[in-house]
């Protein structure tokens, strides 16, 4: 039996709301712990989001063109991970560091974000069952 038409957008909306709330709490907690002189909270969210996305991509069935993604895929990977990760915040914070002529911090944020998120996505794929997502 086919899923109702409202299920896909509802799954994405629910996941996005949960991801956004988690992003807010995790980022705030990390910033309280490590300080706000560097965007530690955003870096932590992006790295843990990449880890989670990798694990989910490895563990959830890949979407099939004829059927489309499952409700679980839409809820967890598209919604939750999409609402949780903060690439737009990363871009604005990096630009602000550069604008303030804090070049080492701006470059460090780019390099650390790239290295940590790629490593975390790889680790998530391994934790989720190994291999590259389809």
From TrEMBL:
Report the locations given in the UniProt record. Cell membrane
Q: Does the keyword Ribonucleoprotein apply?
A: no
Transmembrane spans: 6-26, 38-60, 72-99, 106-125
Protein keywords: Cell inner membrane, Cell membrane, Ion channel, Ion transport, Membrane, Metal-binding, Sodium, Transmembrane, Transmembrane helix, Transport
Could you tell me which Pfam families the record lists for this protein?
A: CRCB (PF02537)
Catalytic activity line of the entry: fluoride(in) = fluoride(out)
Q: How is its activity regulated?
A: Na(+) is not transported, but it plays an essential structural role and its presence is essential for fluoride channel function.
State the superkingdom. Answer: Bacteria
The residues that hold Na(+) are: 82, 85
Chief localisation class:
membrane
Membrane-topology annotation of the record = Multi-pass membrane protein
- Sum up the protein's function in the record's words: Fluoride-specific ion channel. Important for reducing fluoride concentration in the cell, thus reducing its toxicity.
UniProt family annotation: Belongs to the fluoride channel Fluc/FEX (TC 1.A.43) family.
- What's the protein here called? Fluoride-specific ion channel FluC
| Source organism | Halorhodospira neutriphila
What is the name of the gene encoding this protein?
fluC
């Amino acid at each position: 039996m086919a899923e109702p038409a409202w299920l896909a957008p509802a799954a994405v909306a629910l996941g996005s709301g949960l991801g956004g709330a988690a992003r807010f709490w995790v980022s705030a907690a990390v910033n309280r712990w490590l300080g706000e002189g560097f965007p530690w909270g955003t870096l932590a969210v992006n790295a843990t989001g990449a880890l989670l996305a990798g694990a989910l991509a490895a563990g959830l069935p890949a979407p099939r063109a004829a059927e489309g993604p499952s409700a679980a895929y839409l809820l967890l990977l598209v919604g939750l991970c999409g609402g949780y990760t903060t690439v737009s915040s990363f871009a604005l914070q990096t630009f602000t560091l550069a604008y303030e002529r804090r070049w080492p911090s701006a470059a460090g944020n780019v390099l650390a974000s790239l290295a940590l998120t790629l490593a975390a996505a790889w680790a998530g794929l391994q934790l989720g069952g190994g291999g590259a997502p389809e």
